[in-house]
Amino acid sequence: MAGVVNKTVDDDEAAMRLDRWFKQHYPGLGFGRLQKLLRSGQIRIDGGRVKSDTRVQPGQTVRIPPNIDEGREHRPLTANTIRDRHDFDVLNDMILYQDKKVIAFNKPAGLAVQGGSGINRSVDSMLESFRDLKGQKPRLVHRLDRDTSGVLMVARTRAAAANLTKSFRHRNTQKTYWALVFGVPKKREGRISTYLVKEPTPDGDRMRIAKHGERHADHAVTDYRVIDPNPRRVSWVEFQPVTGRTHQLRIHAQSIGHPIIGDPKYFDIDNWDAPGGIQKKLHLHARNIKIPHPDGGMIDVTASLPQHMQQSWNLLGFEEADGIRDEDE
């Protein structure tokens, strides 16, 4: 018979409700039984009686009475566990970097980050398979469009999620995208600064350039540079978004007359066909992210091109090494 166990509250569990804390550590413990154990004083924090809505703090000791099973061992094989095993394998193959706080994936084009209308599978739903022994599911901290490939950061803990989200919000993160666009911008480097507003269409939400002061419009800023110097029907452009608006790079590329190849929403060049061999898929890839690590230092993650973009790069004779920035630039 298992005896009394004393568990220490972790740093990442600060201010968590006690009932939520038990749900993570002891998913097999029902709420009704938890209430009875609390009322009878069998569950205590630092020796004192508590209620289900008590907020736990790091370093506190939770008294766990005998015979409470954590409920995660020997689970029966069900449709859910079979799906989870498959999702785990798929996500595991996508990992570029991981530690105790952070995971970085190379998200393939076509896989949605979050669920929604008509979406049966997403990175967020697949992350169920990455729940840890405490029941914590990794958390999304930013987004990529469904058809955009590349680096996607995920936090393993609540505290790491708050830290990374803050870095994205306060623009302490450097994001670099590679794209194949129509034509060659005359200005080889520049900044695109506009206001964007979202409007619904029969084909889903779409962004448009708005006037300064227009209701619900957000300021959007993108730096860009042309990597391939040779005149072609298409060109390789690096984008670095300063802000993070929906479809920002796609609408900004269109706004300067050089929409991204394969973009079903914003490519607006009439009677134009891509060079032979280039697939009609969105050619936009989140190539690199540099972001402060929650524990200090920097995370610097680079994702290889998806298959359809690598094929285009090969056809056009682009060399990935040409896209690497000098640290002195």
Protein traits:
Structural Genomics Hypothetical 15.5 Kd Protein In mrcA-pckA Intergenic Region, Chain A, 329 residues, Pseudouridine synthase, four-stranded antiparallel sheet, eleven-stranded mixed sheet
Topology, please?
Layout: E1 5-8, H1 18-25, H2 31-39, E2 44-45, E3 48-49, E4 61-64, H3 79-94, E5 95-98, E6 102-107, H4 123-126, E7 139-140, E8 149-155, H5 158-169, E9 174-182, E10 189-201, E11 204-210, E12 218-226, E13 234-241, H6 248-255, E14 284-292, E15 298-302, H7 307-316
Parallel strand pairs: 8-14
Antiparallel strand pairs: 1-4, 2-3, 2-4, 5-6, 6-8, 7-8, 9-13, 9-14, 10-11, 10-12, 12-13, 14-15
What class do helices, strands and sheet pairing give? alpha+beta
> Could you please say which CATH topology of the largest domain applies here?
Pseudouridine synthase
Which consecutive residue ranges, at least 5 long each, have pLDDT under 50? 71-79
Secondary structure: number of strands: 15
Instruction: Give the biggest beta sheet.
Output: 11 strands, mixed
Q: How many domains? A: 3
